[in-house]
Amino acid sequence: MTTLSPILLLATSAPPLSGMGLLALFTWVVAAILIGIYVGKQATEIRYATLADGQRLRRRLPLSFQWLLPFTGNIKMFRRPQHADLRNKVERKLVSAGYDTVLSASDFLALRLLIPLVLAPLCIGIIILLTAKIPGGMGDSIRERQVYLFLCIFGYLTMRPTTWIKQTIRQRHREIEKGLPFILDLLTLSVEAGLDFMTAIRRLIERRKVDALSEEFIRAVREMQVGRTRKDALKDMAERVNHPDLSSVVSALVQADELGVGIGTILRIQAEQMRGRRFQRAEKMANEAPVKLLFPLVCFIFPSVFLVLLGPVFLQMLQSGF
C-alpha cells in the first residue's frame, strides 16, 4: 500500500482530460501501435543475396537499416550524375562486404543521411520524456547537457553505417584468411592428382560449405563459363575482395599461366606462404594481448583486489583512530 500510495495520489490529483486531450492521447496511442507493428515487421524481415549460381544466402542488416530502408527511395539526391564517384566508391565497399545484391550504393548513402536525422531526435526525445519526472534527471538538468547528449547520439549514428561496413569487410577478410590455406592445399592435391585447374575449383566449391571465399570462386567460375578468360576472371575476383593475400595468390596464378609454369607447384608455394602469414598474424595477436588486457586489469581487476586485500586494514586503522 505504501508503494502504491504516490501513484494513487497522482492519479486522483491529476486533472481530467478534455476532449482535445483525449483525442491527442488516442492519436499518440494509435501512432505508437502502428510504429510498433512496422518495427516488428521490419525486424523479422529476412534479406538474401543471390550468388552467381542462383543460390540465396541470408544477409544480416542492422535493425536501424531495416527500419529506414523502405524510405531511401524518396531521397534521390544521391542518384544524380555529380555523385557518380561517391557511388562508385561505396559500391566497391559493398562488393567487398558481399552486400552488393542487397544494398545499392544510393540506398546506403541515403541511410547515412536518414539514420542520424531520424533516430537521433527520436532517441533524445525518448530520454527526455523518460527522465522528465525524475528528480535530478534530464528534466531538472541544464539545457547544455541535453545539447551535449544530442550531439553524442547524432555523432554515433552518423558514424554507424561507415563503422558497420568496415566491420563487415573486416569479418569477410578474416573468413578469407582462415579458408585460403586449406583451399590452396585442396587445389594443390587435385591438380597434382591429374585434374585441370578449372575442374578442381568446380569440384571444390560443389563439396565445400559456402563461405566468403567460396562465393568469390563461384562468381569467378561462372564468369569463365560465359566466356571470360581465366586471367580476367581471377583479376576481377582479387579486385572485388581487395585483400592482399588473395591478390598475391591471383598474381602468382596469372604469372604462372603467362610463363607456362606448372600450376601445382605455384599452388603449393602459395599455400605454404599463406600458412606462414597466418602464423605471423597469430603471433602478432598474441603479442598484442598483454597490452589489450592492461586497461581492464587496471580499471576493474586491480581495484577489486586492492579492496579485498587492503579494505580490512583500512577499516582497522579507522577504528583505531589513526
Mean pLDDT: 80
Instruction: Estimate nothing, just give the exact number of structural domains.
Output: 2
Total DSSP helices:
11
Count of distinct strands: 2
- What is the topology, as strand order, of the major beta sheet? 1-2
Order of helices and strands: HHEEHHHHHHHHH
The span between the termini is 47 Å
Broad shape: flat
Helical percent range?
over 70%
Nearest-angstrom radius of gyration?
29 Å
Main pleated-sheet profile: 2 strands, antiparallel
Structural class from helices and strands? Answer: mainly alpha
Low-confidence stretches: 1-14
User: What portion of residues belong to β-strands?
Assistant: under 5%
What's the topology here?
Layout: H1 5-13, H2 19-44, E1 47-50, E2 56-59, H3 63-68, H4 84-97, H5 105-131, H6 143-192, H7 197-207, H8 212-225, H9 230-241, H10 244-259, H11 263-319
Antiparallel strand pairs: 1-2
Helix pairs in contact: 4-5, 4-6, 5-6, 6-7, 6-11, 7-8, 8-9, 9-10, 10-11
Search tags:
about 0% strand, two-stranded antiparallel sheet, about 325 residues, 2 domains, Receptor-associated Protein, disordered N terminus, single chain, mainly alpha
